[in-house]
Structure formats: structure tokens, C-alpha cells
Amino acid sequence: MCGIFGCVCKKENVAPLIRKGLKRLEYRGYDSVGEATIKDGKLFIKKDAGKIDEVHKKCNLDDLPGRIGVGHTRWATHGAPSSINAHPQFDCSSPPRFAVVHNGIIDNFAELKKELEEKGHVFKSKTDTEVIAHLIEEHFVQKPQADARKTVAKTGISKLEEAVSKSLSQLDGSYALAAISTYEPDKIVCARNESPLVLGISENGQFFASDIPAFLPLTKNAIFMRNGELAVLKDDSFTIKNISDQRIILREPKLLDWTPEMAEKKGYTHFMLKEIHEQPEALRNTLRLQDKYLDLLTTFLDRAHEVIMVACGTSYHACLAASYMFSKVSYLATHPVIASEFSEQHSRSANIDSTILAVSQSGETADTLAAVETARQRAATILGLTNVVGSTLTRVSRVYIVQQSGPEIGVAATKTFTSQLSVLSQLAIQLAKKRGKISTEEIDLLEDKIQLIPEMVEQIIESQESKVSSLAKKLRDEKCFFFLGRGISVATALEARLKLMELAYVPSIAFPAGESKHGPISLIQEGFPVFFICPPGETRKTLIGNISEMKAREANIITVCEEGDEEIIQLSDDYIEVPRGLPEVLSPITYVVPLQIFAYRMATEKGYSPDMPRNLAKSVTVR
Ligand code: F6R
After folding, report:
1. Is the CB of residue 108 less than 8 Å from the CB of residue 173?
2. For the ranges 137-141, 344-348, 416-420, which has the lowest average pLDDT?
3. Torsion sign (Cα): 345, 485, 334, 384
């Protein structure tokens, strides 16, 4: 996730507007920033790694001249945060003629880059975005000015627009992008496919942005671009077209009644709620991971003598779920270990034959990094899964995967957890292919099902949110909860418990349901709330027995089950339904979502701030 913003205005000096607009998008990414403007037929550029204020302090982003410009605040996906990899990205000319800013992921950038290099294009950055600038350059056939004007008159399409359209037709992947060129310094061409893009329309000029807050202080007239659309912005007009057939689309601006603060959270009351709702998009991003990274990582896993997964908190729960996935799908035994315990448990036994898979959203958690360091000193191989390119974990890992969830601002991990699970399940499937232990039919089924998850999560949010909110209202004064599951659902139960404890401050207990009668069931009295995680599959039948044990002791039974699972529903005092058809081994990705919402609602019911729970920090960089 990144933020893009730019404008073409009637008055000079748009650079400060762009910087301030980007600042309001910083929640979308903040590892580097850049701007390009055009004046007197020349591109002016400033960009560097760092947050907007840091870069501005260093090189004054506001003194770029001109009435037209584009800007970008980055959350790296391809290429570490650096000045070269910061956007805008440019064509080959010196000085450059085209500047492009982009939010999204170009799936086929490696192939396009190869083709362009064969045609003589020289790449400077490691970004996927740079291919777009070179493609536009390639398609922009230079003609004398008079001819160019004739082309516009005849076809209604300017050469820049034509070059951008042709380039878009070659891109696979997601994008919200904008291009400017010194050849046509009066316009911005922007386009959208799957990444958000909104236009701000005003008498003083036109704006484009990843999100409304960027231009909200400048105009309240907004047009939401849809997938497959392109817009040409000039200081006094805008045109929207369908990319595939150039058909003009007439769409009136909407008058917004948002305050800038509301807009930053896209109208959600908290970042956490916004991030819960962003899960379908984040999950779709994980399905775009390049095979070569999955392949490389699984090659190491396949050869490993022992695999130890280290992580803390929610990331540890992802590892716990992954240990079931690796065992069931790829027949690989792995050991999930809480990172702060790693040194005690493994400081002697880890060795050159050990493989450590470290999982950390931030890539900066001190306990996880300390475990990695201990293992490194014993010559173990380090593999990483993180959300932050350029984080310490990416630097110390032999191979790493970036999950591409975009920044998570709420302290409690939500979208990064489900994305971790999605990546880990893809690794398990990839490894299964290598090991040949399960049939190709089973692999195909899992691969098909994983594609359905983003939509299922969308459905859960849409259909269950109000039901879960009523449940939170009803249970708000309970003093303790049990969260129980069997098999992989133990990880879901532990995560649900952690969310509830850290946000709503309700001490709760989670454990494998089979353990109840070995002690914890003695806590049960009439009305004691017990959540059961009940996906269909191997564990369901025995779990029904566990539910019945609790019911016999008059516990308040709340289940998360598959849509229409009447047997479970009959046993439940309350139930939350999840779409049918996901194999148990993938179930934590969907089953955890209503439980995240439950924790969120319990916190707000009790008047607590879910974005900033007491005593907690987003990234724990001390041990
Ligand atoms: C809980 C939560 C924490 C983190 C833990 C590890 O909602 O967010 O438990 O999961 O601090 O953080 P990362 O993944 O950054 O290593």
C-alpha cells in the first residue's frame, strides 16, 4: 500500500499542496517520499528514503516550481526503501521526460522489464513501477507539435493518453497510477485497476489521490474512479474514459461532508475497524506473491533437518496455525516457539542444520530478532516473513517474503495476521507440491479454495458485523471467557482470546477443547460464556462432544460455525456463521474475522480505545 497525490492547478507552486496532501496519506506508507513537477518544459524532482517531514527537512520539497505535479509516499513492496526506489519513477531520457507514481503491484513486471531491456531501456531502480515509465516512453512516438495537435483533434486522444493506455494494456496486477510528461505539460493521466483512486474537482484545478483526505482541505467535490478507468486532468477540466474502448464516461462529482479527521480513517471510527475491513484487499495482495519467492523459501524448508518458527503474540499464533498446515499439507514437522523463549529452549541445540522461519509483521520485534541472532550465531539458516521491506528482519534473513498488507496503524494486529496465514498456507501448499505427499487433486482443491478467501472475508464482514456487535452488547459485562477449538482452531482460539484481552481488558482463557476435563471445566457455572470455533472437518465430531460437556454444565455456548451447520447451531445459545466450503486447514483465515470484530466491539462497548490499548505499543523493540 502506498499513497499517491498530485494536481494540475491554475496558479503556480503546487509543491507545498502536494507535500501536505501526501502527509495526509502517510498512514498508507511512510518509508520514502518523492515529488515531480513540470515548469518550462522541464521536470523537477525531489525524492528520498524517510518520512515526509524528514525528507522535507533535508531537501525542502516545497521549492519545486510549476502548476502541475505528482507525489508519492511509499510502503515498499519491490526494492528496499531508498532514494532510487522512491517514486516518481522515470523513463530513460536525461533529463527525464516522463514521471510516474503508482500504488499497487505489477505482477508481470519482471517479464516486461526483460523485454524493455532487450529494446535498450536502462533501469535504475528495483521497483515494479519503473516498467510503467519505460513502457510509456516506448509507446510515446514522438511527432512534431503540429502533427500531435492534429492527432488530438482527429481522435480526441492525446499522445500521452494513448501511450498510457497502451502501457496499461500490457500490465497484469493492481494499480492506481498517474503520469506526467514534459511533452504535454498541461495534463495528468491517471488510471485505476484494483487500487483506490479518487479525483478532487475544483475551480482552481484538479486533483487525484489514493484517498480523500489528501485533497479534502482543497475541495469537497470527489469522483471515485472505478476499475478499468482512466482520467485526463487539466487545470480547467477532466475527462474519464473506459480504458479498453476509450468510451467517455460521464460522472458527476459527489459533495463530501467529511471532516479531514474522519476521512483519514475513511469514515471508520477507528483504524482497527478500517483495517478489519481492509482484509479482503490485503488478502488479495497475498495471492499475488511471485511464485519464485514461494519456491525459494520452500526449497529451504524442504531441505531442512528441523524447522523452528519463532514469533511473538499474534505472529506466534500464525506460526502455530502454520505448524498444522505444514504437517497436514506438506508432511513437514515444524516447531512454533515464542521468540522470547527461544534462547532458553534452543540456544544449544540450534545448529547448521536448523532452519528458522521468523515471522514478524514489523520485522523489528526485539524478542524475534534476538532469537534470530542466537540462531545465526549457531550457523542456522534464517528465513523471514514480514510486512516491512527494509526492516531488520529482511536484512538478517537469507530469504524473506513480504506479505504486502500495507501499514497497520491500530496496535492490535488484524489484517497482518490473516495475511500471514494466507502466505504461510501458500508456502505449505507449495511445499506439498515439491514433496508429492498429497494428491494433485487435493493440491488443486486447496489452491482453488484459497482464491475464494478474500470474498468470503468480505461476506463475513458484511453479513455478521451487526450480529457480532449485538453479541458484544449482550456480553459486555462478562468477567471471563473461554475460547476453545481443536486442531488448527486452537490457534484461532488463542488469537481471539488475545484480541479480547488486549483491547477490552477481559481476562480470558484459550486452550485445546480436549483439555477441558483435565482441569479448566471446574470454572464452569451457569451462564459462563464459552466460545467454540467449529469449522467442518476432522475435529468437528469430537468438538461436538466437548460442546455438549459444557452445555450439560449450563455454560453459555457461543459458536463460530459454517453457515447452516444445524447440529452446531442447535447446541448454541448464540452463533456466528462463516461461509461454507473452506477446508479446515485454511479455516483460521476466515474464522478469526468475526472474533476480531467481537473484541473490537467489546472494547468500544466498554468505552476503551481499540487503536491504543493501555501499556501496549505497535512494535515492541525492547526485550
Ligand atoms: C497483538 C499484536 C502483538 C504482535 C507482537 C509481534 O494484537 O499485535 O501481539 O503480534 O507484538 O509483533 P510483530 O509481528 O511485529 O513481530
Report:
1. yes
2. 344-348
3. negative
Q: Does the Cβ of 362 fall within 6 Å of ligand 1? A: yes
Using CA atoms, how far residue 145 sits from 138, 158, 163, 185, 438, in Å, is 18, 11, 16, 13, 63
Q: CB–CB of 273/469 below 8 Å?
A: no
Q: Ligand 1, residues 317, 416, 620: which to mutate, most atoms within 8 A of Cβ?
A: 620
pLDDT tens-digit series, residues 134-144: 999 999 976 55
Full set of structural domains in the chain with CATH: 3-262 (3.60.20.10), 265-438 (3.40.50.10490), 465-617 (3.40.50.10490)
From the CA of 314, give the closest atom in ligand 1. Answer: 10
Among candidate residues 39, 434, 467, 618, the one labeled active-site is 618
Q: What is the pLDDT of residues 385-413, one digit of tens each?
A: 999 887 889 989 999 999 988 878 898 99
Residue 360 Cβ contacting ligand 1 at under 6 Å: yes
Instruction: Kindly give the distance from the C-alpha atom of residue 339 to the centroid of ligand 1, in angstroms, as a whole number.
Output: 11
Which amino acid makes up residue 547? I
The answer to whether residue 114 scores a pLDDT higher than 80 is yes
Instruction: From 271, 315, 495, give the residue whose CB has the most ligand 1 atoms within 8 Å, as the site to mutate.
Output: 315
